Fold this sequence. Notes:
alpha+beta; 2,3-Dihydroxybiphenyl 1,2-Dioxygenase, domain 1; globular
Amino acid sequence: MKLSQIRLITNDFHKSVAFYRDVMEFSLGTYAEGMQFASFNTGETKIEIFSRHQISEVIGEKNLPTEVEPQSKFLLSFAVDQVDEVCAGLKNKGVLFLNEPYDRKDWNARVAHLRDPDGNVIELYKHPL
């Protein structure tokens, strides 16, 4: 079995398409306005299992009351050549980050986190440090 694609179910199709095309600069593969469907060429894809407790701490959701369900249901993780440069470019496009780029020594990686228009968490990372 191999992963075919990851599908994001969005509240605002056009806003999400614009975000992944114009801000994240992924190449648009398929666009079907009538079906409200778009696909992007992003390179290799991986799924990782990560504890909610740990990722909540990493992205700053650790202080939520226990009866409140965190907004983050999953995280899209993208390897980049230079975290700080990519973040600077995204900031110039108006992206607000959950945290500034930092070295996560226990992961041997430099990371930063942001959200897409629907609140999905995106991690940018460079590994190894």
